[in-house]
Amino acid sequence: MQTACTKEELRALLAPVRGKRIVLVPTMGALHEGHATLMRQARILAGDEGRVVASVFLNPVQFDNAGDLAAYPQTPEEDLATCRSCGVDVVFMPTPDVMYCADRSITLEETHLSTVLCGACRPGHFAGVCLVVNKLFNLVQPTDAIFGKKDYQQLAILRRMVRDLDIPITLHGAEIVRGEDGLALSSRNVRLTPAHRAAAPTIYRALKAAAEAYAAGASADAVCRNVRSELEAIDGVRPDYVELVDAENLHAVTDEKRMALLAVAAFFGEVRLIDNIELTRNV
Ligand code: PAF
Predict the structure, then answer these.
(1) Which site among 38, 120, 241, 275 is 20 to 30 Å from 262 CA-CA?
(2) What b/e string do you get for 170-188 counting C-beta neighbours within 10 Å, with b at 16 or more?
């Protein structure tokens, strides 16, 4: 496995493999089994001939809250070991001043899917994600890139970016990886208090119950209300949103839908967790 810290080093490492399949896994580090799953999937996609590139970059531009950025865990040594064990060929680990010019003045804003769910509560977040992912796409020039479906809205926005800007890269969405108790794996989980860590699997239990209720004909309102009240019953937990949205355009479901997405964000103390589930029913 090779590592690059500058754009020049990255270009030099990738020059000999241009023309082969290159699969990119963008991350912000603090890697866990969810990331490892993406990397192993990337390895399979790339095959023996292709290359897997992982980026480890805590992107300051996508944080709307300085405290959240400062508290984000950083574990570079462990991250390198994870990348190596998952068959990654090249790890790109730039610092913010390598990644961004001090006087950068171009922004990249998606204006429809970003206005709801996390976009409504985190101003500038998705513009920061689009900017950094676009830069990574330009630097790595992958044929494919893999993103987890836990960040469902992020994946939908990046698919829109690729479509609207004619970026010649195939995006793959990977299923959410959960702990044995159902909690979606996230780099933020390590920041939960023991009590909140013990309570956090309630999110997925409530989502699964909602999926069953929806399949049996429950209304969007009832489904969201039940999830919200399960979360509000936990000491120190404040739901940010609980919304049933169209699985494609992410806007509120207004009519009977066969496929919908139930998306949740909730503060467990200071730690904001997100999760979602795809719901289906016969209409
Ligand atoms: O999902 C993440 O970890 C980040 O938003 C991403 C895609 C690596 C961009 O910084």
Answers:
(1) 38
(2) ebeebebbbbeeebbbbbb
Question: In this predicted model, what pLDDT tens digit does every residue of 206-263 receive, in sequence order?
Answer: 999 999 999 999 999 999 999 999 999 999 999 999 999 999 899 988 666 678 999 9
Task: Please choose from 133, 137, 172 the residue to mutate so as to test ligand 1's pocket, defined by most ligand atoms within 8 A of CB.
Answer: 133
Q: What is the pLDDT of residue 193?
A: 98
Q: Please report the pLDDT score of residue 256 as a whole number.
A: 67
151 lines ligand 1 (CB under 6 A): yes
- In the chain, the percentage of residues whose pLDDT exceeds 70 is 99
CA 212–ligand 1 middle distance (angstroms)? 31
Give Cβ neighbours of residue 251 (< 8 Å, ≥ 6 apart).
Answer: 116, 245
Residue ranges covered by each domain of the chain: 2-174, 187-276
Quote the CATH superfamily of domain 187-276: Pantoate-beta-alanine ligase, C-terminal domain (3.30.1300.10)
CATH superfamily of the 2-174 domain: HUPs (3.40.50.620)
